Amino acid sequence: MKKKVLFASLILTTSTLLAQYDYEFKTLPYGNGIVSTKESLVELGSEFNWYLALKGKTFFIRPTLRLPISNEQQTSMQVDRFSPKWRFVLASQYGQLNGYQCTVINGWSFGAQLEYGFNSFSYYQTPQDTKVTESYSQSYAAEIKLIRFFSRKDYKASQYSPQFRFRYAHTMLGGQEIGIVNPIGDLAVATTTNKVIDKPFAATVFSPAFAYLMYSGHGNFVSAPAIYYDFYSKTDVVSGSSGRARFEYNIFFYPLIRESNVKIGLAPFVSMRTNGNDRFDRFEFGGQISLRFGTAFLQFF
């Protein structure tokens, strides 16, 4: 009986304190699908969101699973955190708005994200081998995000959000498949067999990025120019290290502007290799289409 009274008292006290601070807790679905000219992926999971309305403070934890749908072999253009294999992703973010008693509304948030994947690779030790060698490797990544927000406490006021992202990724990649000429048989016909004879290798990318989201306060569209720079290195001596800058211009459409956690994005981009060799042309042009739900209104990275 005493234990029941104690537990009931704890629950009542906690509920009373949270009620005084206008505390809200929500569990929301999260999804992000991207299709580009080089690769495509889908990321699915849940978001656990805490909100203190009177203090303007928010905090969320979001576990997701990222799955590639398709990708160009040996791609080194990590468009929007692309991974060639599955990844478990754990993201969190803490933020604060200045609140209700100011004519100018501004705020900030700080976020962190960790990724992990454990994958297998198959290859042949030599072109003549008939037995496949299996290799298991780990990939991981980490990033931090800094977000600012500016607006006015007016109906249909314009909104602006500069955002920074710093990312480090260590990714294991498989070798390229090549054609091996088979021994000529009795019919004197040359045939080939496609094999991977290179061992998996590590690729590392350090990628700072900046985006600036703008909403006019009218309509259902948000624009967001963004620029990335990838410092890219590989363990194989053929490609070595390289650098590539990419600029993209995003247009997001919100079907329901007042329920703005669903958005459709279209982004043409151009990238330029600044040094090294990454097996792409010096200038690459393309575009991507994205569908996101469960995200904040001006959330970009």
Strand order of the largest sheet: 1-2-3-4-5-6-7-10-11-12-13-14
Largest sheet: 12 strands, antiparallel, barrel
As a percent range, the share of helical residues equals: under 10%
Overall SS class: mainly beta
Count of strand segments: 14
* Uncertain spans: 10-20
CATH class: Mainly Beta
Number of DSSP helical runs: 1
Mean pLDDT: 80
Distance between the termini: 51 Å
Provide the succession of SSEs.
Answer: HEEEEEEEEEEEEEE
Q: Any idea what the CATH architecture is?
A: Beta Barrel
Tally of structural domains? 1
Content of β-strand: over 45%
- Radius of gyration, CA atoms, in whole angstroms: 24 Å
- Write the CATH fold name: Porin
**Principal-axes shape call:** elongated
Task: Present the secondary structure layout.
Layout: H1 2-20, E1 23-36, E2 39-52, E3 57-71, E4 87-97, E5 104-123, E6 133-152, E7 159-173, E8 177-181, E9 192-196, E10 201-215, E11 221-234, E12 241-253, E13 262-275, E14 283-293
Antiparallel strand pairs: 1-2, 1-14, 2-3, 3-4, 4-5, 5-6, 6-7, 7-10, 8-9, 10-11, 11-12, 12-13, 13-14
Write a concise keyword list for the protein shown above.
1 helix, single chain, 301 residues, mainly beta, two-stranded antiparallel ribbon, Porin
Overview of this structure, please?
This protein is mainly beta. It has one domain (23-119, 140-170, 202-293): Porin (Beta Barrel), CATH 2.40.160. Helices cover 6% and strands 62% of the residues. It has a 12-stranded antiparallel beta barrel with strand order 1-2-3-4-5-6-7-10-11-12-13-14. Strands 8-9 form a two-stranded antiparallel sheet. Residues 10-20 have low confidence and may be disordered.
